[in-house]
Design a protein that fits this description.
The chain is built from eight helices and eleven strands. It is globular, with a radius of gyration of 20 Å.
Length: about 350
């Protein structure tokens, strides 16, 4: 059934918050979050069409497992704020979020409310596990979203869900390396749920439901940085307790296309790193990272903003789907996304071609 006409059948998309009109979420999260009472949790489960796992968290957890839980909670609280605003905009028939047929609006709300509630349960599970291990729970921030229409909101949802699907691969691997096997299984179930909603988002945009045979992998540090692009600065009560790196923002100034081309990027360079050789490294699908020389075009001495360009070798590597770009201080070779993150100066720049 067709819920809505979304005229966004584009071949490429870049994610950049700066310069876009934004809305800010200053109100409380729904359903008593982040710490709902028992009745509120039952209401969330009813809306989610499912329950929190009723088994206890494992008795012990690795240090990296704790970092995983903190990043998951941090991300899920952001997603709750986004989908709550989206549900409110559709419910209240805000300009840009209206439908010609009431049945289409009702169908859209039914799906979005289920997604919202499911994300609420994800956040609760991560924070409940932190509480179980006597670790301070992650608190929500205030957020800003560069969307003004349903079309742009669904497009943004496909982008951050792509990032989530890659990041959760990193989460599962880190849980496994720390022997947190029960948590690895649980996160695998969430990957499936996120994939289901991603297929629906892509269908709404007129795309094939499944993006790639092997989805692009990610890294916790890149996700942590990307989420902060939607955070009102200074509004996170305990973000300093999440021991992950925050990189300089990387903007993709060019419009990528399904072809080999030179792309222009922009990033801040407070420590004058651009005086030494730098590289643009791409993470795409499950392939080895692709490294290209970065040519600095200009550097503003006052603002320390660098503009640079590098080849986007789409045709050489069939770079469909999500590509995570970063400026690195090494040419590698890199064995995986985690090695790229260790050498990154700026990123992630997010490119989607599909």
């Amino acid at each position: 059934m067709r819920f809505v006409s979304l005229a966004l059948a584009v071949s490429s998309l870049t994610w950049s918050v700066a310069g876009s009109p934004t809305s800010q979420v200053m109100n409380q999260l729904p359903s008593g979050l982040p710490f709902p009472d028992t009745n509120q949790v039952e209401g969330i489960e009813q809306a989610a069409h499912g329950t929190l796992p009723n088994g206890p968290p494992p008795p012990v957890i690795s240090n990296q497992g704790i970092v995983n839980l903190k990043l998951i909670a941090f991300n899920e609280l952001f997603e709750i704020a986004f989908f709550n605003e989206l549900v409110n905009n559709v419910t209240n028939k805000v300009d840009g979020y209206t439908f010609e047929r009431e049945t289409d609006r009702a169908n859209m709300l039914d799906a979005l409310k289920a997604i919202l509630a499911q994300e609420e349960l994800h956040a609760l599970r991560a924070n409940d596990a932190l509480k179980h291990f006597k670790i301070p729970q992650v608190k929500p921030c205030k957020y800003k979203f560069p969307v003004q229409t349903l079309d742009s909101a669904i497009t943004l949802a496909t982008t951050f869900t792509d990032v989530v699907l890659g990041t959760l691969q990193d989460v599962v691997e880190r849980f496994a390396l720390g022997r947190d096997f029960d948590l690895a299984r649980e996160i695998s179930s969430i990957i499936g749920q996120e994939g289901e909603q991603q297929g629906w988002f892509r269908t709404l945009l007129g795309k094939r439901p499944s993006e790639l045979p092997f989805l692009t992998t990610g890294n916790l540090n890149f996700a942590f940085t990307a989420i902060q692009g939607f955070v009102v600065p200074g509004s996170c009560p305990n973000i300093a307790e999440i021991p992950l790196r925050t990189y300089e923002e990387l903007k993709v100034l060019s419009t990528p296309a399904p072809q080999n081309q030179i792309l222009t990027f922009q990033f801040n360079d407070p420590d004058h790193e651009a005086k030494s050789p730098l590289w643009l490294t791409y993470i795409n699908q499950q392939n080895l990272p692709i490294v290209q020389p970065l040519r600095v075009m200009s550097r503003d001495a006052g603002t320390k903003v660098v503009k640079a360009e590098a080849l986007f070798p789409y045709e050489n590597h069939k770079m469909n789907g999500l590509t995570i770009a970063s400026v690195t201080k090494s040419a590698g070779p890199f064995g995986d996304a985690s090695n790229v993150a260790k050498w990154a100066l700026a990123g992630p720049g997010l490119i989607i071609i599909n």
